[in-house]
Each structure stands twice: as C-alpha cells, then as structure tokens.
Write a structure and sequence with these properties.
GO terms for molecular function: ATP binding; ATP-dependent DNA damage sensor activity; damaged DNA binding; hydrolase activity; zinc ion binding. This protein has about 475 residues and is α/β, with parallel strands linked by helices. It is about 30% helix and about 25% strand. The strands form 6 sheets. The protein has a 9-stranded mixed beta sheet with strand order 8-7-9-10-6-11-12-13-14. The longest helix is centred in the middle third of the chain and has 18 residues. It is globular and about 75 Å long.
C-alpha cells in the first residue's frame, strides 16, 4: 500500500515546506516544524461538481445599511470592547496568558446571558465539567442555566448542538484542544486548529449563534496557532494583566463590528472579575505628587480617556554602556525621545542610566505619551517635581517640534473631572483646554518645555547654559 503524502508545517506561522528542517525559513522559529498528513483528494465526481456554480447578484454601495443585531452580555466593560454586545453569527477569538482570567470572564458572561433567558452552551476542552462547575459555585453562579459539556471532538460538539435550538452564545475553551476527523493531525497542530475553527465558523454563520473561541498565547504574547485563524474570525480580543496586580485589561485588537483598540478594565477579586468604572482613579490611586521624575499623561485608549502616571529615574551610570529599562512603553520610542533631548535640546543623558515605567502596569502604545515621558525625564534629571495639577500629552517629532494628537477634548475633560487645573499640550489644542476649563500651557518645541522646567527648578540641564 502506497504511503500517503505528507507535508511539513510550521506550528508557529503555518508555513509549509517540502522537508523537515530545524528552523522555519518564514518566521525563524526553531523546532516548530511538524510532519502532517496531507488531506485526501476529492473524488472525481465531487471535484467536477466544484466547477459548477450559480450567478451571484451584484449590488452597489447605495441603499440602506442595517446595523448588525446584537445581544448584550450584561457586563458593560465587555460590551464596550465588543462594540455594544455580541453580534449574531459572529466569531470572537479571546487570547490571554494562563491564569489571567479568561475562563472566569466567560463563565460570568455565560451566566449573565443564561439568567436573561438565552440558551448558552459552554464547552470545555481543557477542564472536566466538575472543575468548571466548581468555578461557577465559587463565583456564586451555580444557579445559572448554562449548558455545560467537556468535549474535544468537533463532530460530537456540532451533533450535540443540532439537538435543540441553536444557542445564542457558544463558548469553546480552547480551540487548541479540538480535533476533527477531516484531517489526520494531532490536536493543537496548525492543520487541526484551522480545520476546527473553520467548522465552528461555518456553524456560527449558518445558525446565527455567537461563538467565542479561547486561544492560548505564546511567550511573546501572540495568540498561538496559525495567524490565518485571526483573519477568519470577526473579532480578536486580548486579555492582559500582571499576575502581581489585581486589575485586568480586555483589549480589542480587531473588530469588524466595532472600534479597535477599545479597552475594558476589570479588577480580579475573590468573587470574580469586577468592572472598573473609573480606571483613571485606579491608575492614579497611589500617586506621590511631590516626587521628582513623575508626570501625568492624559492618554486615550480607543474612545476612553485614561490618566496614568509616568515614572522616570535618571541616575549617573557606572557602566560603559548605560542601562535603558522600560516597562509599559516601547523601548524604541524612549530611544527616540532621548535622542531628541540630546540633539535638539542639548540635554546630555548619554552617561546616565534611564529607567522608565508606566505606573499601575498599563501598557501605553500611543505617541501622545512623548511629551509626558520627556517631562518626567527632565524632572528626574533636575531632581525637581512637576506641577501637581498639570497633565501632559503631545507627540514629539525628530525636529524637536511638539505635534498635535487626536481627540484632545476627551483627554482634557477627563483631566478636569479629576481635579487637574493645567495642561501642557501642543499649541493647536489650546482652545480645547479652554473649553474644558483648564489653563493651557502650549508647547511648540521640546526645547521650550526644557527651558520652562529649568526655570522652575532654578537650574538648566542644557549644555552651555
């Protein structure tokens, strides 16, 4: 009997090669290539049938565009991230590190929908039904009428779901544990993950059920498995947080039915995840107002304004190559700000160790944090605290100019609501500060900010001053 053909597939990126090799040429991952059996070819009649099709009606952009029908989960922070609730027939991929709280969040959402009278099915491929039941009892959700099963076969899951009305919500925890008879590969391989996800997506589109797939993450925080799964689903949500802190952040990395980069903030308690209505107060709760090297950033995550503290420590280095340590911000962005401070403002930091951290564990990704970072660095270098009632935001260009950022109004209104009085910002945002009731401190160039801080401290860090 002739041996079936096989291919070698990288489990990190899904690239296919003709032979096994230790390193994937596409992504550079080591020991990630696994031999997998190729799918059986279609019979002749089935292959010929694929050539026949039907005429599809073509439409124009004109006409009414109805908003996708949704069902609210009952958890406001989760509904904010999804764009207002779960869309019927949509598929969501939820990723996060082990123990971060993915299953807890989904159990709470499932219980809320089930108590509202909707049919909810929770399928666990990693835990037994008793373990999921114990978690629900610990959260006080044992009375919620959620249909629970522990199964990994896609065919068995779909057959069970056909026995009754389609559920409004189907939770699969996790997609890496499922397997299907359609392919000959071990569970968790690229082929199995792709085939299992495709079968569940087809079920969601044909029945109108909302399907949530839980995905593992790799060491660098990326969702494990082939990247094609992220393109197949309608939304990709990332559950982030620090094991040493109580709060968790749910971030939308992709959403076909809502805004991207939207975040929801939760706090992990003994009774599960609780919503944080005022995240700015959470991140500024332990702030030390008179400490040098600290500034308050008026940031924006999606459509939500968030105030967060930026902490910097600049000390003379005893090493030939000074340290550059960053937590919660991009290291390349810090290198750029340091280069602009030295080249355009004459602030010598090449012989100093620089440590930068976003207080509270939040990860800031927007360039509007440049001005707050620069202010914190200069404040630490001068050993002089910044004004307690001032917030900072603005993007720094390579020429030293402070450029405008998007949506200054919500940032400034959030700052005024929390009691701040002044705002150092780009010049075009001066009118927005007045509308919010704040005193505007327009900054045209980074050198002007350094000069203002030097005058406040009574010393000038610029060379030749």
């Amino acid at each position: 009997m002739a041996r079936g053909k096989s291919s070698f597939v990288c489990q990190a990126c899904g690239a296919i090669s003709s032979r096994w090799q230790g390193k994937c040429e596409a992504c550079g991952a080591w020991n990630a290539i696994v031999e997998e059996a190729a799918s059986a070819p279609l019979p002749g009649s089935a292959a010929r049938a694929l050539g026949r099709g039907r005429v599809v009606a073509l439409e124009t952009f004109e006409g009414e565009a109805d908003e996708a029908p949704r069902i609210r989960s009952g958890i406001d922070e989760l509904d904010r991230v999804t764009g207002g609730g779960f869309v019927f027939g949509s598929v969501l991929l939820l990723g996060g590190e082990p123990g971060i709280g993915k299953s807890t969040l989904l159990v709470q959402a499932s219980a809320a929908l089930a108590r509202a009278g909707h049919r909810v099915v929770y399928v666990s491929g990693e835990e037994a039904s008793a373990q999921v039941r114990l978690r629900a009892q610990r959260l006080g959700l044992a009375d919620a009428p959620v249909a629970l099963a522990a199964e990994t076969s896609v065919e068995d899951i779909l057959t069970t779901l056909k026995d009754g009305a389609p559920p409004k919500l189907l939770v699969i925890d996790s997609i890496q544990t499922l397997w299907t008879n359609q392919v000959e590969s071990a569970p968790g391989t690229v082929t199995q993950v792709r085939a299992s996800a495709q079968a569940l997506i087809r079920y969601a589109k044909t029945t109108g059920a909302c399907v949530i797939l839980v995905g593992h993450v790799t060491k660098d925080g990326q969702i494990a498995g082939p990247r094609v799964v992220e393109h197949m689903v309608d939304a990709v949500l990332s559950f982030e947080g620090d094991s040493g802190r109580d709060f968790r952040i749910l971030r939308a990395q992709k959403n076909r039915f809502g805004p991207t980069d939207e975040i929801g903030v939760f706090a992990m308690t003994g009774l599960g995840l609780e919503e944080v209505r005022n995240p700015s107060a959470l991140f500024l709760g332990d702030r030390e107002p008179d400490a040098p090297g600290t500034s308050v950033l008026a940031g924006l995550e999606g459509s939500r304004p968030i105030l967060v503290e930026i902490q910097a420590l600049v000390v003379p280095s005893t090493l030939g190559t000074p340290r550059r340590a960053v937590v919660g911000w991009e290291g390349s962005r810090l290198a750029m700000v340091l280069a602009v401070l030295e080249a355009r403002c004459g602030v010598r930091l090449g012989s100093h160790d620089v440590h930068l951290a976003v207080a509270g564990g939040l990860r800031v990704q927007e360039p509007a944090a440049d001005l707050a970072v620069a202010a914190a660095l200069v404040s630490s270098l001068l050993n002089a605290p910044l004004p307690v009632d001032a917030v900072f935001f603005g993007e720094i260009g390579l020429t030293g100019a402070v450029r405008a950022v998007a949506h200054p109004g919500p940032r400034l209104r959030e700052a005024a609501r929390l009691g701040f009085k002044r705002a150092a910002l780009p010049a075009p945002a001066e009118e927005a500060a007045k509308d919010a009731g704040l005193v505007a401190l327009p900054v045209a160039t980074l050198d002007a900010l350094v000069a203002r801080l030097a005058a406040r401290a009574g010393s000038d860090p610029r060379q030749g001053a």
